Amino acid sequence: FSAGVPKAAPARGEGRDGSAPSDGAPARKRDWIIDALDDEGLRYVDQRPSGGCLWIVGGGEIEGAVAAINAQGAGFKFNVRGSRATRGSSGWYMRGYPEHADDRALGSAPPVTEAELKLIEAGDTVFHKAFGYGEVTDVDWGKGSISVSLGDKTRTFMFPSSFYQGLLTLV
Questions:
Q1: Of 23, 55, 51, residue with least CA distance to 37
Q2: Residue whose C-alpha is closest to residue 16's, from 25, 76, 30, 26
């Protein structure tokens, strides 16, 4: 059985509680992200113990919950097609075991605030991790999107999650 979306009882390599299966498989590493996902009531598939990703099943409807977890130090990114782990459903994924924001050394940059995001408008400059500096051409809170002119192309990103994920930053 390949990894899939947890239902009533998690299959091997899956879990809502991060516990080891009872079939003698090695114990899973438990971390703060699993606790946060459980607190939010989100469905997930954790394949990190075998070198894979931690997937949260869902799309834009859970963006706020994912953003809150990302603000604590996670690095979930969205994939509309998901993976085999999500059985093709949209999902949010990350690798590894990041430190919780409370556990990091003081002096790290604070995440973008809601107040800062509300001030973004056309003409503002942002920085994209891969494409560099760009100019905001449109912000649509209703659709949850932001359009940015990057070089000779205008690209559209999920908003505000692209800022929470660190894909875009304010300049």
A1: 55
A2: 30
Give the chain's end-to-end CA distance (angstroms, integer).
47
Beta bridge partners of 150: 153
Q: Cis (ω within 30 of 0) for the bond into 160?
A: yes
How many C-beta atoms lie closer than 10 Å to residue 123's C-beta? 8
- pLDDT by position in tens, the chain (length 171): 344 444 333 333 444 444 434 444 444 446 788 888 988 899 999 998 888 999 999 988 998 889 888 888 888 999 998 898 899 899 999 988 888 776 544 444 556 888 889 999 999 999 887 778 899 999 998 999 999 998 889 999 999 888 888 888 888
Q: Which stretches within 52-106 are classed as H helix?
A: 63-71
Strand partners, 132: 128
Tokens 């891969």 identify what position?
A: 130
Pairing of strands 54-57, 145-150: unpaired
CA pair distance 35, 30, nearest whole angstrom: 8
